Queue: 2 jobs
Job 1
Amino acid sequence: MAIEIKIPRLGWSMEEGTFQSWLKKDGDSIKPGDPLFTLESEKAAQDIESTDAGVLRIPDDSPKPGEVVKVGHVIGLLSSADEIAGENPKAKPTNGDGNIHHDGTVKPTVTPPVPDNLVPLGQAPELNSVAESAAAVSPRARRKAVELGLDIRHVRGTGVGGRITEADILKAASTTQPSTPHNFTSMRRAIAKSTALSFSSTPHFYLRSEVNALALIEMREDLLPEMEKLQGIRLTLTDLILRAQGMALNDFPNARRIWAKEEIIELPANDVGIVVALPEGLMIPVVRSPEAGDLLAVAKQRSSLAAAARAGGLKLDALQGGATSLSNLGNSPADDFAAVISPGQSSMLAVGRAMPRPFVVDHKVCVRPTMKLCLSVDHRVMDGGPAAEFLGRIVHYLEHPVLLVKGR
Amino acid sequence: MPAKEIIDVETKSAKSLAHEARRLYRQMLLIRYCEERLAAAHKKGLVHGACHTYVGQEAIAAGVCANLSRTDMVFSTHRGHGHALAKGMEPRQLFAELYGRETGCSRGRGGSMHLFAPEVGMMGTSGIVGPCILQAAGAGYSFQLLKQNNLAVAFFGDGAVNNGAFHEGLNLAGIWKLPVIFVCENNNYATEVPFDYAAANPSVAARGAVYGMPGIEVDGNDVMAVFSAAKRAASRARDGDGPTLIECKTYRTRPHSEGMADFGYRTREEVEEWKKRCPIQIFRSRILAEDLLEESELESVEKEISEMVELAHQYAEQSPFPARETAAIHVYAGPADPPAALKEAIGKERVMTYMKATLEALTEEFAKNERIFVLGEGVGKRGGNFATTTGLFEKYGPERVRDTPICERGFVGLACGAAMSGTRPVVDFMFADFVLDAAGEIMNQIAKMQYMSSGRLKMPILLRGCIGIGHSAATHHSGSYYSTYAHFPGLRVVVPSTAADAKGLFKTALRSNDPVLFLEHRELLTSKGPVPEGDYMIEFGRAKIVRPGEHVTVVALAMMVSKTLKAAELLEREGISVELIDPRTVAPLDVETIRQSVAKTGRLLIVDEDFQPFGLGAEITARISDVGFDYLDAPIRRLNTVHSPTPYSPSLEDAVVPHAEQIVIAIRELVKA
Ligand SMILES: Cc1ncc(C[n+]2csc(CCOP(=O)(O)OP(=O)(O)O)c2C)c(N)n1
């Protein structure tokens, strides 16, 4: 089945853009990641990359340079090799126009477009024939391709000398065969789309800080048994960081701003998203006003959202809102990392594991449990100075955890 | 001296005199008739390979073997039919072997030059000139160690006396006063090379003095002379006075080997002259002249032997050829598995050096098995150059902890004979580089003996030595060469990388009935690790997954294990997860564990301190491409020591051997490939 090439939404508010030019020709073999065309939104022109593989078909009525196009408009198709395979490369086409008709079907061109690494089926050699492709295929990749029912001729190799490896097959399978359950879920696809969108359309910058977490950890350890006994809820470091983030948002309303429909709006509440890892991906439900109420309420919210996410029972509105989120990999070996901002938000706080590390206290190097924070910020919304202030508030609260108990 | 008097020393009665004479006559005749029949069979194509007959030399085998009991042992050469028959091998077994049949003495594995009948003390003939001398000395060593009143005999031609085995074997027998008779059958030629050309001093007997033993020259065509000389040598040996060298002057009247041209190097006249001195005719005349037997009695012996030989021929001709599927049985004594009960280490762990761990294994096994003994330079009082035998000499004395002269071929060949005759030698090479000086004994004799004897001889020999590059040891003290040894069927090749493995594998080696090359990396000797107390054994052919991982499989051995481990830890930080496998034994090689790992990772690197061409990596690569081709996601890579002699200068030495940094790079590249 041909895959439609649509005009993407490049920002929160984008409804239409200006088509500039195709970056590939009709009949070109397209690999995921290949730039397809240039699209101009209000702020900038952007090369739009293909998320799929196939042979590019540009219809007659494809937009001309300078034409304004609506988001979602189909401007071309990627046809799969199977479809090419259905064509008889030797046969003379009847109409010979080689274009996509408006019903989306493909008519053969005079010379069927054959990508460089794609062999017309009529001459398709056996799998292990030398002529199969210039690029070699590892035996493992070959086996995997058979297992997944993937036509290896679609795949571009990234190994030495262009050798197709298992990773290439898996990658190709995930883009060309969305129905293959092996390695592709709708959640994965959604994550792929949203992170790719966010990362390519949001100008990220990063601020880092290392916090002395001694007091924070001690306090949590003090509070933990009691809260657990009383309420059956485990207070986690995540809860405390959410609290700190909420309080910082409250102190610093600039950080509640987001980029929406080509303008900056300020959200009213101090909501904070929390990244919940799931076997097949992740979800970011939003904790409402973690800066308010008592700590226990934060812990309760967080734990029920996480449970719902794991059980697949999150309500849609639980995913809405918040200008910032927290990604805490405290239970992993990651010391330090930077996160991709969740679409529709303007920052994301990434926190690595708390570990004893050398830390300077009173001009002396001591060993302290520390956490490394990294705040990813949308430059459209916030510049370095204000963002640093926001981060500074978070650090302040984490290093003075008594303030967290009290809340706003 | 009349035959009567020679025989008479022990046998007083006329009846027993007659009996002895008939026995000798019968024996010579049997050999002669067999040889003539075999020569005819060779012409007809019934004998498939070489056939070196003994015609003209019968008196020697008959005269010597008449002094031996069944439990005495004979080690012989390519011209060994006569020795086998004289030691008691049945003629039909001999015929069947030469005809290549299942009923042959070596079940068709050996032919003319590999005749085995250990059940009657015929310990084998050999296609290599020389080793039988060393092996006989080894059997002498076993008899001495086990306090058995037996003796060993080596038969060899004049060609062997200019070979190093003669020098080393006689010297060892001389210094240790081993119960051995060295019988040189000087028939004037080695193939076509005259002895008076090949030997600067043409007297073999005279060489006895060099090795501190009597050297006796006798007329090898006079059975009574041979009998008498052997008799004296035998009682000397049984009395504990040591070895004797007997040079029997003789002549073979048939070509070197059946079918070979005979008159390029000697004349018909010379051959005819010697035919007149036929040992059988001479003895026959003497029996009649001295009235030991009647002519009719001799005739009936002739008739009986002639019928017997014909029956042997028929038996052999009617026997089946061995089944094709049995072609590779008996290469090893049995599976390499130790008893299940001993597989698991249960003792409490102590931290000790690699060196101490093997010493502990040796010490424990020494106490349990009195057949174990150690041979080597400096293993006695000194306790071994690498402290491999510390404390054993004091406790067990020189017979079990034996300092050797510097003659690697000699003491390895001796160890071969010792293993063949029931003891369990441990050969301590100090540096395994010296193994090469004994290569023929190991690869051609020790490795093949079980097979050639169709599984009747076991070869429990442990050959140990240090391998590896480091500390500017330079090229004669740095070799690994394990791939070379693993190339030969019949050898186990063990290369442990940790103290605990070293102990467990050493114990397995000491209880295995196969020859084991136990190679210890010198740079690991002082490395420490936890070692369980007491008895435990590690199966040969069972690799260890030193470290599990996901992205790439690395097989490394000996010193390369710790280097790879270091590399893996560095790579872990880059997100590259390495599965490290230490095969521990090169032969047998645990391909299955590697296959399973590659099935997971799809990528394989072999890090090997031995040379790359035709080596361990090549073998693993080929085997994985057989059984795991479809798992591979990238070409298999090898990282080896540079293919050059090992240099001395630290900068050069460092440049040839793989380090963790190079391993890191190789793995990174492989992961990208
Ligand atoms: C180590 C070795 N080198 C060469 C040969 C080839 N070869 C076989 S028999 C023989 C001559 C041996 O002469 P000798 O030991 O005098 O025994 P003879 O044949 O005279 O009985 C030679 C050189 C061999 N078998 N082994």
Job 2
Amino acid sequence: MSEQVDQSKRNMLFGAAGLLGGVAALAAAVPFVGSMLPAADTLAASKTEFDVGTVESGQLVVIQWQGKPVFVVNRTKELLAQIDGHDEMLKDPESREIEAVSAAWMTDENRKYRAIKPEYLVVVASCTHLGCIPMYKATKGRKDWGDSVPEDWPGGWHCPCHGSLYDISARVINDSPAPHNLHLMPYKYTGETSVVIG
Amino acid sequence: MLNSIMKTKLFAWVDQRTGADAIIKSQLTEYAVPKNLNYMWNFGSLALLVLVLQILTGIFLAMYYKPSAAFTSGGYTVAFDSVERIMRDVNFGWLIRYMHAVGASAFFFVVYMHIGRGLYYGSYKGPRELLWIIGVVILLIMQGAAFFGYLLPWGQMSFWGATVITNLFGALPVIGEYLQQVLRGGFAVGDPTLNRFFSLHYLFPLLLAAIVGGHVHALHVVHSNNPEGIDVHNAEEKINFHPYYTVKDAFGVGVFLLFYCYIVFFNPQMGGFFIEVDNYVPANNLQTPPHIAPVWYLTPWYTILRSFPDKLLGVVAMGASLGILFLLPFLDRSKVRSSRYRPIFRQMVVLFFVTVIILGYCGHSAPTPTLKLVGQIATAYYFAFFILLLFLPKFEKTKPLPDHI
Ligand code: FES
């Protein structure tokens, strides 16, 4: 019997069966891998509504959007004034390096504010280095913060993990380990002060 | 194909460090199997397949299942809601859960066929006694795993099933109450019970996988029985496991998957047989559902329990009905293995299969006086079968065995 085996035909059958079996195994893997992606209720929770009017002037609150922290700052006139005059200290003063730091509504005038309404800054609160939440150190200079910030501190954020610094428009300052400005996320105003994030 | 892989340099490298060549030869390509195995011998490999399916789907379900009886704001419980979330929100969650639930029934179906084949062809007899005993251990662990798993959705059947079964242990003298509290982690089935059952439901399949390894190893030492039930010595009477039986097993897998997929996709609850209707009602510790019965694969033993008017006696009988399986190789001392050559045994064992089905039917139905009587008669035969085996060789005239297959 073994003399009469047509090996090439047998190999063809093995190959065909193996191929189809492989296709079936791949298809069977789809639901399993698919099940590990975000579930429908997780996706449904991907929008957050917030009333920025509830933030006191000069204050910062951290809210959640898709489980991620988001900074909302009510910037006073003084804070807005701190945005200007230190562009040479910034890695990306115009927020153009990557898509995540800019937005469609940015015009040449409001680019530096990085906000639809300059007084309310809304940014993703994760340090672009490795994701810690930076500390809010809004006032200028070392008066309130000691030597945790540089002498010419323009006011902004200081990341506790590896020392990245951001200015009051959340733009990263030179020599920080963080590569980019804090990211923006899509948001829009649905009223005077009510904002929908996501 | 395997041959050409085994000729590669890479394989030689692995072989030098693992002895893979010798293992593959002794366990697959040169592992000799009687050439006359019929399709009843497919159920062993199918059981292995279902075990793998159960472990795989279980791992993915555990990513979303939450074992907590704490109440949610919706008025249900965390566990119940997490199962519903798997069904509605998790991608393919419905599919994976149905695969798991149908898989449980498929597992028992396949294993019961496997056991039935062993009984019919006398596969439990020497030299395969230990192989059989390991198999009974596997059955018991499966039943445990199924029982623990059934509590997890935290529905009415889950809750009251667990209440009834843990109460069984409470019927035992002296240690009963203690044992019951160890199982429940409290004075009634509750949140601690749910947590530990989840832990054990995850543990038991791991035990199962290890013991199945032992079962296969024991098989490969004593080799497969065959429908004729005689020892085969001649090389012409045997063929190698690979490729001949791997191909036949693969064909069996194809047929099995056809049925399995049909049920999973079109009829996952099997009219309340695979997933009981009452389990879609959240657990309520203040109200028992009007008719409570275990899932089909446990009903035969449930009937044995119900057949005795005395609580302790019922529990002991149920334990004995499983325990007696361990003794089977020693109760049946006939030299002839296969039913084909044992006319009386053949009738007895077929009647035994029918009896188990009747017991299952009785356990699944609401108790009535008639069914109770039927159940008692069936229970009596269940035990009589084993006792009669002791005396059978004295008066059974076996047919002459063939010399070869
Ligand atoms: S995470 Fe912020 S500096 Fe490293």
